[in-house]
Amino acid sequence: MATFDAQQGSWTASDAMHFARRAGFGVTPEVAATMAAQPVTSIVDAWIAQSADMSAFNAALAKADVISTRANQNIPEDPAPHPFRLEGWRQQAGIPNAQGHFAWRMQFNPNSFQEKLALFYHQLFATGAEKVDNTAFTVKQMDLFRAMGTAKFGDLLLAVSKDPAMMIWLDTVLNRVRPGSSDIPNENYAREVMELYSLGVDNGYNQQDITNLAKALSGWTLLPLDVQSNPNNPSIRKPNDAAFYVNTNVHATGTIQYLGATFDIGAPSNYGDACIQAILTQRGTNCATFLAKRLLTFFVNPAFSSQALADLQALILAQNFDMKAVLKAIFKSQYFFDPSHRYNLYEGPVAWIVRMSRMLCPDLATALIPSLPSFPAWRAVAPSFNNAGQAVLDPAGPNGWAEHAGWINSNTLRYRGKLAASLALGETLAGTQAIFPTTVASWFPTPPASSQDVFNRLAALLQPAPIPSDVQSTWLNGLWASGFTWDNSSATQAKVRELAFLILCSPHAQLH
Amino acid sequence: MSSRRQFIQTTLAGSAAFAGFTACSGGGSSSGTGGGPPPPPPPPVIPGPILVLVQIQGGNDWLSMTPPTSGANAGAYAANRPALAIPASNLTDLGGGIGLNKDCTGFDLLHAAGRIAWIPGVGMQNPNLSHFTATDFWGQGATVPDGTGWLGRWGDAAFAPTEVLRGITTTSDIILMNHGRKRDFVAVTSSGDFNFPTLLRSTAQIPDSNFLKSGYLYSLTNPGTVIDVSAAASEGKLFYDAASQFSGLITTRTPSVPYPGDTGYAIANVSTQLASQLKLVAQMIASGIPGQVYTVRLGGFDTHSNQLNDYPRLMRALGGSIKAFYDDLGSITTTVNSQSVKAQDRVMVVGWSEFGRRIKENNGGTDHGTAILAFALGNMVKGGFYGQGYPDLTKPDANGNMIFTTDFRSVYATLLEKFLGYSDSKGILGATYPTLGFL
């Protein structure tokens, strides 16, 4: 039987937590219990259909200042400049703004799969904000992933090829060949769209294919829209949007050989679109293998077998690259829920700190109550993402980041420790605003009767791989050396926070 | 049209600048393929050698850094680079029909002082023009991939377990080159709070570092059978071990010369990306941090477009940062075996890039190519040109790229054997490669 044929029949809260860690940013034990009371199929279908009510989230996104460094600052409607500070003209300051905005969305989006898919596609189509130099375009690309994450992969690939941020990032807008000339095309995107985004290196194409695809894509450019001046420096004018078009004055014409087929790239019906589509039609098997590797590595098992790879490749081909059908098949399979696939994957640092903050910080409804602690100050956290190993939205290269064990080194663990300390120990900005608003009492629906109860509850929230009992007892005996009491004293709270910090920093908590 | 062999002989003849040229000991072979007896163990070049490897990331268009100025190569260069060729007015003559881009700040002075070895045409068999494959091959430095890099394997063989600071990178990631089977290089991206634990935005320490260490140590010795946490456990322990040594040694330091971006630096608007890393390396050297190999990185060289504007900026960052570092080292005195040694006499800077770029320009830039220019720079270096000569630009490969002349592992064998004093380069590189004569 093929790897993905056997479907998970029933499931437990533990299974539901595994699913939510991989397909989202985790759920609490309480939410997992309600999920486990329903059939796997209906939960997975609803999760992938992204059918949760978005109205409160959208309202908050439209009104609240989600990227302020001041954690308590929910500002009312603010017509101009709008409160998200993501306009095109914002340059270096816009990167942490956009990173904070993305992290906020990951934390609070009730359809967390939308954000997890955006993160998956961002890792695949890695586009660096520094070169794009237009915050609005960077955010727009994430919106494309949210809108088309479960569409057919070929449609997404074509849309990404015409995405403004991508067209700037890999020089599509500078690829100009005058018709009939011997101009040399700029082959940056033509190479990477096959090497990095659809086929994999040396997998079904050669240098001549690269050169000819570059010709087919020459003249692809952007019409700036909604151009706005930087209020602080009016000479800097940047668009907030752009429309794709083909500038035929610098678009090569004639016929080319590409991936074993002939294309008339001078025909208006094909100014390059058919060549992008040919990656799937001419090299579908190669593309399905490439995509299967990426999906397995990101969602299931980085050490997949050749059989699992072949079966997922076959599934992708059978579903004609329909990502919704493919993702459903993966997440409903016994293969996904196999015990050996729990905690076999190091989590990326941004997803990791987002998931931990979802467990320890107030939910959206609570955060929106004006008198209570508000959102994490993601704008203040974002500059640490790079040292933690993932400058999300601003990768250094078009290949994104090395996943799994690639997330882990001496420096990234150093910064994960700092992020853990900031979250668990309640670090403040300027001594007043908590960067991550947390209250210890909210972590315990029922008062713990022992230090072991404290550990068990924190472990249920933070969901590390099982921490050896010897390590648990070392920590608990050290923290509660003179006996366990439970009260609201600052001393008790400090011990609980330290225990949460220790769990977060453990090697076990880096896996998910 | 002359053959490549003839070209090399022609361009090398009668040039004072090529006085140091030393053909590979393997004779005319352009790629060491092993075989033959290994070279005898070399004498140590200098006390306490320190290697600083500069990764020039993105693929350096070195035909714009040290372009040919005479002969058939100069003609091919002009024909293929109608818009991007560096004009003679912006070149300093290096001799041998090769010029140096004047934007590479300070390298002209170092060359004139005989402190730079140039190795043009360094490359590998069957290049596929991918940044990432090429970077991995450069990192791997061996015939068979096994997930480790040549420096990491050298560390495996040469470092004692306690020598956790002997291999350091100033980048926040660990490239393949720095991966060992036993251990990776340690990443030090800042000196200020390289201790643990601290908060995110303040450097206030928090009290349970011993608990943390015990958890990591336990996990390392009990890695688990079903769930493997060993990668996180070993990297975490590496950080704690490194931090405990580092924090006891590091001292604050003000550079003795202005680096790019500093007040007093003569050129405005030069990137500080490399300068800030080299400042940190100088601080570590001055503090007595026992780093023997440092890896640093300057990115941005993937000049598919806008090269006329970007390349001068990249050259100023590369040249200016390294020249400032070299000058800064002149003020640092270190201790080696109880003897005082000037840092400038210990440090050699070596630059590499994953590939060079296409000979023929596109519309405003250059696409991915093959062979690179490597350079080695320092007081112990015998300046001049080394390796098997400048590639023949009139005879590119089928994709219009340069055919390499010197195997990249010859550079590594030279660094291992003749600089780091590690005689078994074959054990690291998988085969014997001829060494180059610049040390």
- Helix proportion of chain B: 25-40%
Please count the helical segments of chain A.
24
Catalogue the unreliable spans of chain B: 1-44
Radius of gyration of chain B from the CA trace? Answer: 22 Å
Quick structural overview:
The complex is a heterodimer of chains A (512) and B (439). Chain A is mainly alpha-helical and 512 residues long.
Task: Give an account of the 3D structure.
The complex is a heterodimer of chains A (512) and B (439). By secondary structure, chain A is mainly alpha-helical. Chain A is 48% helix and 7% strand. In chain A, the strands form 3 sheets. Chain A has a two-stranded antiparallel sheet with strand order 1-2. In chain A, strand 1 and strand 2 (233-246) form a beta hairpin. In chain A, helix 9 (153-161) runs antiparallel to helix 13 (273-282). Chain A is globular. Mean pLDDT of chain A is 92; it is low at 71-83. By secondary structure, chain B is α/β, with parallel strands linked by helices. Chain B has a single domain, classed as Alkaline Phosphatase, subunit A. Chain B contains 11 helices and 13 strands. Chain B has helices spanning 4-12, 71-80, 107-112, 131-140, 150-158, 209-221, 230-249, 273-287, 307-329, 408-419, 425-429; strands at 50-56, 91-95, 98-101, 116-123, 167-169, 186-187, 293-298, 333-336, 339-342, 347-353, 372-377, 384-385, 406-407. In chain B, helix 6 (209-221) crosses helix 7 (230-249) and helix 8 (273-287) runs parallel beside helix 9 (307-329). At the A-B interface, helix 11, helix 21, helix 23 and helix 24 of A face helix 4, strand 6, helix 6 and helix 7 of B.
Q: What layout of secondary structure does this protein have?
A:
The complex is a heterodimer of chains A (512) and B (439).
Chain A: H1 13-23, H2 29-36, H3 40-49, H4 55-63, H5 94-108, H6 112-124, H7 129-132, H8 135-148, H9 153-161, H10 164-169, H11 188-195, H12 207-216, E1 220-230, E2 233-246, E3 255-258, E4 261-264, H13 273-282, H14 284-300, H15 306-318, H16 323-332, H17 334-337, H18 349-360, H19 364-367, H20 378-381, H21 410-424, E5 428-429, E6 433-434, H22 451-462, H23 469-479, H24 490-505
Antiparallel strand pairs in A: 1-2, 3-4, 5-6
Chain B: H1 4-12, E1 50-56, H2 71-80, E2 91-95, E3 98-101, H3 107-112, E4 116-123, H4 131-140, H5 150-158, E5 167-169, E6 186-187, H6 209-221, H7 230-249, H8 273-287, E7 293-298, H9 307-329, E8 333-336, E9 339-342, E10 347-353, E11 372-377, E12 384-385, E13 406-407, H10 408-419, H11 425-429
Parallel strand pairs in B: 1-7, 1-10, 4-12, 4-13, 5-6, 5-7
Antiparallel strand pairs in B: 2-3, 4-11, 8-9, 10-11
